[in-house]
Amino acid sequence: MSDRFVRTGRPSGAVGDRVAGAVLLVVAIAAWWLSHDYTSGFGQALGPGVFPRLVCVPLGLLSVYLMVRPGVNQRWPERAALIRQLFLLALLMVYAGLVEPLGFLPTALLTVTLMIRLFGAQWRQALPFGLLLTLSLYLLFEFALGMPLPDMPGLDW
């Protein structure tokens, strides 16, 4: 039997790591490319595209490392874990598409709360912690870092 398959007949973790690395590399390149469209006001040294680019560099490097040297875990994730991972990717894509038209606060609250639920928390835990994390991120970016976030329609602070 090929070394790609474990006794279960499913692909090994090395193949999964390489696939994940390739997908993450595509995400890093796409995010880098899309971050150039973010503009800032006149005279600002750092615009809103700097943060995504700062995240894309290590993501790209680590994804290449994951493809070149996959982990030693030879267990392919179970179906439930794969579905959660796909739902998480879809959730992040929906967030990226809705953050401009709906604003940061409602979009981030929905996304963060659903992410917390994906990790197994109950609704009564996910909602307050999602709200706390969303407000913390808003305060961090708006006031501490001075990076404006998209406002909700009709709400210009």
Structural class computed from helices and strand pairing:
mainly alpha
Instruction: State the helix count.
Output: 5
What number is the mean pLDDT? 82
SSE string, helix = H, strand = E?
HHHHH
Q: What is the strand tally?
A: 0
Form type: globular
Oligomerization state: single chain
Which blocks of ≥5 consecutive residues have pLDDT under 50?
Answer: 1-6
Most strands sheet: none
What share of the residues lie within helices? Answer: 55-70%
What does this molecule look like?
With 157 residues, the protein is mostly helical. Helices cover 66% and strands 0% of the residues. Helix 3 (79-102) packs antiparallel against helix 4. The longest helix has 24 residues, at 79-102. The protein is globular. Mean pLDDT is 82; it is low at 1-6.
Give me the secondary-structure topology.
Layout: H1 13-35, H2 50-68, H3 79-102, H4 104-118, H5 123-144
